[in-house]
Every structure is written in structure tokens, then in C-alpha cells.
Amino acid sequence: MAAKKKKAEESKPKRQVAMVTLDDGTTMKRTDYIRKLFQEGMRPAEIAKKLDIRYQYVWQALRKIRKPKTETEGEVAEAPAQVEDAFEGEEEEEF
Questions:
Q1: What total of structural domains would you count in the chain?
Q2: Cα–Cα–Cα angle for 51, 43, 41, nearest 5°?
Q3: How far apart are the first and last CA of the chain?
Q4: What residues are paired with 27 via a beta bridge?
Q5: Helix (H, G, I), strand (E, B) or coil at 51
Q6: What pTM did the predictor assign?
Q7: pLDDT 10s digits, 3-46
Q8: Which of 72, 74, 68, 65 is nearest to 37 (CA)?
Q9: Strands 19-21 and 27-29, sheet pairing
Q10: CA within 20 to 30 Å of 40's CA: 3, 69, 82, 84, which one?
Q11: How many CB atoms lie within 10 A of CB 58?
Q12: Residues 6+ apart with CB under 8 A from 31
């Protein structure tokens, strides 16, 4: 049984991490760069255009900071206004 599990683990493809090279020559994960640009005030659609990637990739990178917190003790925790405002008026692309 252990041999089958080991074989299954070996056959799983590893996820590739997309990297970007900045103007100063440093490299960083594309997801981290997307989050950095967003925190600097850039809108998701602008980020997608700047990096020449689909909006869906930007949305996926920002989903954790966009995701509203769960209800606690009867109160609903709200997502930061900056995050909500950044996505206002933009529609998610359908594929």
C-alpha cells in the first residue's frame, strides 16, 4: 500500500511558480508583485494590463485579501473599504 501511495505522489505534477523580473533586476513571485501593486493603489484591471495577464490571475492572487471575514459573535466583519472599492464597477471575466 505504501508503494502505491509513494508512486502516486511522484506522478503528481509540481506547480510552477510564475516569477517576474523588476526593472532593477530583482525577481519575485508574480502573486507577491500583484499584491504589492494592489496595495500601492493600482486597480486589478490595470495590473492585468501592466503584466499582460488575464484578469482571472489577478483576481486569484487577490482573493485572500478580498475574501470577507466570517461572522464572529453575531457581528459581520467587513472587508477593508480599499479592497471593495478597487473591484467596484469591474465584472469578473467568464471563460
A1: 1
A2: 105
A3: 40
A4: 21
A5: helix
A6: 0.57
A7: 566 665 666 777 788 899 988 999 999 999 999 999 999 999 99
A8: 65
A9: antiparallel
A10: 69
A11: 26
A12: 18, 61
Looking up residue 80, the CATH number of its domain turns out to be 1.10.10
**CA-closest candidate to residue 90, choices 56, 64, 61:** 56
CB under 8 Å to 60, separation ≥6 — which residues?
Answer: none
Per cent of the chain over pLDDT 90 is 44
12 occurs within a structural domain: no
Q: What is the residue range of 25's domain?
A: 17-87
Nearest CA-CA partner of 44 in 85, 78, 94: 85
Dihedral angle of Cα 14, 20, 26, 27, to the nearest 10 degrees: -10
